[in-house]
Amino acid sequence: MSDDKYPRSEGGLWLNDRKTAENHPSVTGHIQISPEQLKVLVTLHRGGVAPEKIKLQLAAWTRTISQGENKGDKFQYLRANAYYPEEYNHLFEEGAQPEAETKAPAPKPDADPDDDFPF
User: Phi-psi bin for 48: left (phi > 0), alpha (psi -120 to 50), beta?
Assistant: First the structure.
């Protein structure tokens, strides 16, 4: 994993040139999740952080496309950092093992119906 406590992913938002109705998004785009960030997210999930508490902190910059047929067009460059509170730092210490997932004990097999017969 990288030395950065909050690994980054990057992406962008561009004007939606296919917008044909008012309820269509004004911009569309993507974020590419880095392998380091995916490891952090999986570690947090396995470490017991509820999914609603795992978040990506976003930042955006207006940039200009510098080459190609869309040269000069503006877009929003995005950066997403996997963020977690300090209380979960222990999950990332060297040698830390994720807490074991709790599983219900396997059901005991039903008694063999033939056991009731005296022979």
Answer: left
- Convert the pLDDT of each residue in 17-28 to its tens digit: 899 999 999 999
In whole angstroms, give the CA distance from residue 93 to residue 7.
Answer: 15
Q: How far apart are the first and last CA of the chain?
A: 65
Question: Could you tell me if 56 and 79 are in contact, meaning their C-beta atoms sit under 8 angstroms apart?
Answer: no
How far apart are alpha carbons 76 and 59 in whole angstroms?
Answer: 10
Taking Cα atoms as reference points, which of 42, 39, 54, 31 lies closest to residue 4?
39
Alpha helices (H) along 9-113: 35-46
Amino acid identity of 9?
A: S
